[in-house]
Amino acid sequence: MAEHGTDPIEPALHLVAVPIGAARDITLRALDVLAGADVLAAEDTRSLRRLMEIHGIALGDRPLIAYHDHNGARVRPRLLEHLRAGRSVAYASEAGTPLVADPGFQLAAEARADGLVVRAAPGASAVLTALCVGGLPTDRFLFAGFLPPKAAARRAALAELGAVPATLVLYESPKRAAATLAQAAEVLGPRPARLCRELTKRFEEVWEGELPELAERAAAEPPRGEVVLLIGRAERAAPDEDTLRDRLAAAMEVGSLKSAVKSVSEETGVSRKEVYELALRMKDEE
Q1: Which CATH superfamily is domain 127-231 in?
Q2: CA 221 to chain centre
């Protein structure tokens, strides 16, 4: 049987990240919290029981409370009462990090509003795992969760996301993956994309291609298991010289030439060298 820390767990709401597939992806700190918390809460109590059994953690006589979308309003007051009484409460999502597409958000928000302590034991995340294996830029990304299931609302959401200059990360049902990819191709055009399925599990797979290509594949070969979609960022149109001059002039009024060049380059995507040369020409013209 595994041994875990015996230090007392701080009276607080502890948001415990749990594996998304491989049971050994849990952190040592998360195991300590699960072993020592006064009260355990979980989106899926069966999954948490199984995880604790794998790692040799006994529930004992501690309460294990189901907390999910369907009972949140009824169960939250009970969990908050435990916290107000000075007990430590560990909450685990069904898989991954709590509060990410997960019902724990309202619980944490109400705990903070009451002046109660909220801590996190970080760990596995399908969002970050997909970004690691997907091969699309990770310097800037936007997690948009699950898109609306109805086509019209989904189209509107995609149109709104289309202008974001970042890699888009979406969760999707395997049953709707083909429809979402096809609509994304229609709204966003042939951007590079990835369909990541069964992350960290035995049949982990990453499909690569342009959106239309992945949509066709998903329609012909419906994916199985949990799905994360990555969509390449919108390309920014290069601004014309007049626009660059206006931005540089405004930036140089409040800062140095160096800082103005840096900020304008980052805002527009134009190389620093090109922006710097234009700034020097503007100085000569004064």
Answers
A1: Tetrapyrrole methylase, C-terminal domain (3.30.950.10)
A2: 26
